[in-house]
Design a protein that fits this description.
single chain; alpha+beta; three-stranded antiparallel sheet; 2 helices; 6 strands; about 35% helix; about 40% strand
Length: about 130
């Protein structure tokens, strides 16, 4: 009887572990992150999970105030991350939200600078282009 109970407990533990791993791979473990910037439309953020699932977020260009590199201190070291600052609809000078990018992949600063420069170039083209109604 004790052997049967032990094997049932072991089987249940293995089953729960497998379910937890599947949930982790499907909802938590991000394999790849990308940012697509189209000056006339907006920004598309895509996260590809280990299970193959993809999550996509689109931000209209009219909501984007700026793209910045932010820094934070985490566990005795400085980390850098790219952020999108969203314009506050009620206050043109204000910021309503800060959207961090590449939180799972954590690219190095030199990679972030390349993405930052490309984003700034597109944002500057949008600001200098004549607005059509």
């Amino acid at each position: 009887l004790a052997v049967l109970q032990n094997s049932m407990v072991l089987s249940a533990a293995i089953f729960i572990t497998l379910i937890g791993l599947i949930i982790y791979l499907h909802f938590v473990k991000i394999d790849q992150e990308s940012l697509l910037v189209i000056g006339s439309l907006g920004l598309q953020l895509t996260a590809s999970y280990a299970s193959g699932k993809e999550s996509t977020t689109f931000i209209e260009m009219g909501r984007v105030k700026d793209v910045v590199i932010n820094e934070a201190i985490h566990m005795q070291k400085v980390i850098y991350y790219l952020c999108i600052l969203l314009q506050d609809p009620g206050d043109p000078q204000g910021i309503s939200e800060v959207v961090p990018l590449f939180q799972s992949s954590k690219p190095r600063l030199d990679c972030l600078i390349e993405v930052y420069r490309s984003c700034q170039e597109i944002l500057q083209q949008r600001k200098t282009a004549p607005q059509s109604n």
